[in-house]
Design brief:
Length: 360
Amino acid sequence: MTSAVLLGHDTLALETARAWTAAGHRLVAVATRHDALAEWAVGQGVPLVAPGPGLADRLSPLHFDWLLSVANLDLLPEAVLRLPARGAVNFHDAPLPERAGLNAPVWALLEGAAEHGITWHLIEAGVDTGPVLVRRRFAIAPDETALSLNTRCLEAALDSLPELFAQLAGTPRPVPQDPARRLRLHRAKDRPEGAAVLDPGLPAPDLAALVRALDHGPYPNPVAAPKIDLGDGLALVGRAETAPGGGEPGLVLGADARGFVMVCGTGALRLEGLVPLGPGAALPAPGTRLPRPDAATRAAREAALAATPPGEAHWRARLLDLRPAALPPLGGSRGAEPLRRPLGPGDAALALAALARALA
């Protein structure tokens, strides 16, 4: 029976754990921040180990053949990699050696790649540099989004598990990567040019592709949200598709309740799912001409976006944990209880009065 410790923080890590045990192998421990995986491990009697700093000390009393790093963005120190008897394996959501690093599906779409894939590889020094054990490749569809491409990576990963497990239980067949074939190393700080604000002077198909590449559906967007400059403020763009039309780039040809059509450098673009950012931003009327960003504006936006990565995880967690204030005049109590009933007529004034009284 082959044994492993699993380190991962997403659905793929959970499905890998299930498949590993279903194949007759043993999980010695699981290190995760993923609630569903932690719940599954407890239900299966698999010990939980806290990930993060000090992981080597927590794993050192254990004996296991393989360390499986699945949907894990933490860089593993050498002290951790020395612990498994046979080695450490990582899942990468892109073909190697071509695309290493983070958010590779998004960058494949942004750069117009014709194909994508997934890779299971041994972990060595460097980012995604170890010999390849299993790979899958597939063509990128014309209407691919970040959400759909990530879903296809998940499907390919699950499909490849039996082949991977057979190697780990028997004789691995690692194939060294050719460094000369590496095209990109995507870093956590990498962001699209111009902070993903659409430039009306570019071809409409390119702008539609940009919006699709940043469309993560209901999941957190780790790169940037596509935006359009309305002249008096920015608006998030939910969907974009090419449309007939011509004229000066930025000219708004038509608008309705769902969005508007804008002339681009080549062709026109229909934008929908628009969310103005700030009270001054209003959706444009037909005949309006939207601005193109100049070099100084692009540089300022890129600098502002570049400053956000270190705090993104912190603030995303805090914003997702927002709770309504439990004001006593509205049925709450002192402490952390939420409001006990929905707000009704007059409650806003009552809440303001209570807040003013509390701050007096």
